[in-house]
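Illustration 12: Tryptophan--tRNA ligase.
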Amino acid sequence: MSHPNNQTIAAPQTIVVTGDRTTGPLHLGHFAGSLQTRLQLQNRHEQFILLADTQALADHQGDYSKVRQSVIDVALDYLAVGIDPKKSTILIQSMVPELAELSFYMMNLVSVARLERNPTVKSELRGKGYEGQEREVAAGFLTYPVSQAADITALRGTLIPVGADQLPMIEQTNEIVRRFNRMVGDNILHECQALLSNTTRLPGIDGKSKMSRAAGNHLSLSASSDEISAAVHKMYTDANHLTVGSPGQVEGNVVFSFLDAFDSDVAKVAELKAQYQHGGLGDSVIKARLNDVLQALIAPIRERRAQFAQDPDAVLSMLLCGSAKARQTAVLTLHKVKTAMGMYYF
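Figure caption equivalent — predicted structure in token form:
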């Protein structure tokens, strides 16, 4: 695409940029950590949601078919939970090549050592079994904080919904923005602000770590009724709560963590917690309540997802339109960046 005429980018007061690496269908951790927030924000602000397929290549090296299928899977999950493409621009990362170009320029503004110190990267390396052999990881994985910074800045993002574990990524994005602006002597790029959800870290059903596909402790947004019941049945509560009459512990109790995240009757949950801590409430009671809550939450999402999945061409058409719209913004941003760098020669 030829570069546009010099134009002023008029950024709205707030632009939301968010998204997911397309490594598989989404789960309840995504719903609690970001999707609920996106549903609220799409009614108040301009919002871009990225299907980060380029970044996902580092997770599925050589398995391009899985990345492609995951793009569709995640898009279906977005639509099923209520993300409205008329209100939120959903785009495929690889279909906006300006993001990759800006990412390449930004790689010169951050050291390998700084990338290796990023707590989010270190945590994900541990989760993937690369601890002690970091030099074996794909370069694309190590540099994905830079790619994320390019995504945010190219789309003029100012408000970024993230989980607590992603805060170092926002910090690094702002470091890159400040360094670039100092280098060119102008505030070309915007710094951004993180927005945490009420549930910043949903535990997995095993209670050992946060919910994730890699850990195999997740519950997908398209889970069947039987899968939901089985997951709730396996959930950790309190190992010392041996009888109904004995006092139980709420802190670290996975069932109560899920009730806090998904049960809209806050007063009832508080009542159950008090009764559980005092003694006289069995694990089967709180698990039965959680099962009812999750069945009611997931069933309509599962049904809507199945309906959208019947017309994959319509889903792809929506993604093409969203990508084209996002590219218009990215082109203007990249033009300002290259102009400031003196990278136009004709």
